[in-house]
Task: structure prediction
Amino acid sequence: MRRKTILFTLTLALTASVSAKDYHFTTVKGDAMQTRIYTLDNGLKVYMSVNKEKPRLQANIAVRTGSRNDPAETTGLAHYLEHLMFKGTQQFGTTDYAKEKPYLDDIERRYEHYRTLTDPTMRKQAYHEIDSVSQLAAQYNIPNEYDKLMASIGSEGSNAYTSNDVTCYVENIPSNEIENWARIQADRFRNMIIRGFHTELEAVYEEKNISMGSDGTKEYAALWKLLTPTHPYGTQTTIGEQEHLKNPSIVNIKNYFHRYYVPNNVAIALAGDFDPDATIAVIDKYFGTWKAGKQLTRPEFPAQKAITMPRDTSVVGQDAENVMMGWRFKGANQLQNDTLDIVRRMLSNGKAGLLDINIDQQMKAMETGAFLDDLHDYSALIIEGVPAHGQKLEDLRSLILAEISKLGRGEFSDDLLPAVLANKKLQYFRSLDNNRSRVQMMVDAFINDKKWAATALQIDRQSRITKQDIIGFARRHLRMDNFVCVYKRMGTDSTLKKIEKPIITPIPANREFESPFLNAIRMAKTKPIRPVFVDYNKELAQGKLSSGLPYIYKRNTDDGLFNLVFRYDFGSTADNRYGYAADYLNYIGTRDMTISQIKQAFYKLACSYSVNVGERNISIFLSGLNENMPEALQLLEKVLHQSKADNDSWSRYCDLTKKSRADAKTDQKANFNALWDYAVYGKYNPTRNIIATQALRSMDPQQLISLLDKLNGLKHTVLYYGPSDLKTLEAVIVSTHKTPQKLAAGPVNKLYEPQNTDNNEVLIAPYDAKNIYMRQYNNRGGGWSLARTPVETLFNQYFGGGMNSVVFQELRETRGLAYNAYAVYKRPEYKGESESFFTHIISQNDKMNDCIKVFHEILVSMPQNQAAFDLAKQSLRKSIQSSRTTKFGVIQRYLSLRQLGLNHDYMQDVYAALPRLTLKDIVNFANRNIAQESFRYAVLGDEKNLDMTLLEQIGPVQRLTTEDIFGY
Result:
């Protein structure tokens, strides 16, 4: 189809020079991120941190407002505005704003009238009229043009999120697209236009359905209701109340936008490879004329009364029972949170916290955990616990309180506090490798009114905290009379109400249209980034140690951290006992060390270990501070070869396993994952390949653990990324990791076999919820081909990959059928395996028919649009150009390519082929491999709420029980 460029192409001088200007910025001495903080004349805050690992940068824009500021009569407003910020401006998202505007104004007026109606018949008629006017407006709408803009500049992870205090817009862009990004965002934040309102509201409904089905979400809301009963943290949720979502106000949303979306209430946070001096000039060029809000205020609320006695409540639902407890503290910008953060880690860090060593490792509960929820006005220390089999929630609560009380009595090891600080420092410096982590710290500081020094130097301050400080803090703040508690119990939630599906006429996709703004951005010239493909022969050293073990080695020249892996080429499909042995290892000690002593020793060394048993491989991981690697490896070898099982711990482990399996059957996602495994592989699949509980109980646990003891005698490979030279590494491994002269072969994997889809069929499993999970699966048994990889990769980009894809536009944007929908043509992980294709959607029960119909239409006859194809191609090209494989990822990528029989990255082939690929190639690929193929449908839902007649028309329906899909 020929592309139409509306009106004429705008000429944008995107590379024009900016006049010299002295931009003042502040820094903090000792800041490991070397962050610069600018404030433009209009109050816009700009945080910058340079990290040149790859030619990309994380570029987030944070607005200091969230559901806390929602009007009480229109909750969910901040979140809905976040969705509408993707709909465009006067310049993009429309073919002719002047002609579109009268219809948008009419829709706005009609919604205000609609809110006043209570009679169901009148409301239905009014909504029908809104739908009709929306069709007239939609003739000028270009859906998803913002996403097209982001695709054109090679952005990845385009998204946004809303919480209590923040609305944040997220992009990850190539370093040469800063100016294009700035121009787009400046227009977006200054000139947002509300369009596509009713279809986007349906997407919010779907998000609300998912939220309502989450017992954890309900529990969290109930906890904050107890903590802050007269504050919005406790009185309203981010997505909003159902009644408010049914009665939206465009007027209120606009007022909210003009009140809070002003430069003196916004921060830009950048981290990655860029020139700060040049970038601040670009930002000033596009954002500098944005007018500050002259009367920027936010609602304030009375201080919450002190909690002087325990408060508790209960929520019910299908998910497994648990208990959640909370202690309220001051806001996130108070220095009190320094100590609170350390206390949280002393209670629970996965290894040596009081809850870890005295409850989890002793198997006195399924699991416990603690986290700090630090919001602007109030923070909370939240502790969760999942009970063991037959354990009352009240008894688990008492166990947790007993551990907390030890802090106030000083009943914890003198080593715990310094170990917590050492591990926090390790985690902090590791996080700096990730630009998202850097940016998140910036956003957190801005939203919570933290001075940057408070963030950058927190570890320095915390290093001065003493054991006596912890004791005093706990005595003052973690008492037995100032907490709240929510019991999550099993039952039917009678408060859940179905949101009726309104009759919506799909809006046109208008794929053939393109705004002049998009055309100008798409055609803008930028300095190209040259792609870099790893030469594994140069980047990696391979050979054999003097002990005969093969190794793959890469030197870390950036920091003092290491990763060491012993990798075996067999896994759970060879012998499923290994997974249980690895799991049980977390609960037993050696002849002279308890499990708690082992975990504490690793924590003190700032190192961690794990035994990961996959379907095809077993990997023993050790990582942390390289200076402690020799001692950590000695300890790991001791754990693997001297662990001592006992019947009591084994009996309790079997109880936990039984309880874990029962809990999984109550979880919607776990049920769908089990159904999906069944749909792909049949009865022999990853979910069902388990040992029955009774068979576990009859095992000799010491014999089970001996499987790990014997691993050193089986063939394996050493993987290392760290600062040690090869000679030093060899000396450590040969002296510590003892192996025989001749290694035996490991057991042979019995692989799961994907089942071909020769005919249409439907597999349905039961789960009572307001929404369904559904996938269509196709597997013709065809093998993977490197030659087809370029067209497959581009097909995924065009058809099902992101918000600019055909699937997203057809299922969500034009019809509002789902919050979550995508499709993937999947390459195998190993040479000789077959390719496959699947679609995925989560939707309201009564929308299932529409979802099936639309997916069928776009699969049989894939919508074709040259402009959309060109954007997909351009986006993929820019993504490859700015992608980099670094650090331990080089070894991991090498192994994944080797599994496919390759010695180079197939993305190199994709990049080379891109210039010659055409839309016809994609269409032909879809026609040959998808259009006329048979599918196996996997549907998780309640038959009583689904149109079974339609499913039976698709093909034979196989009704599976929960026991069928889980295998127990």
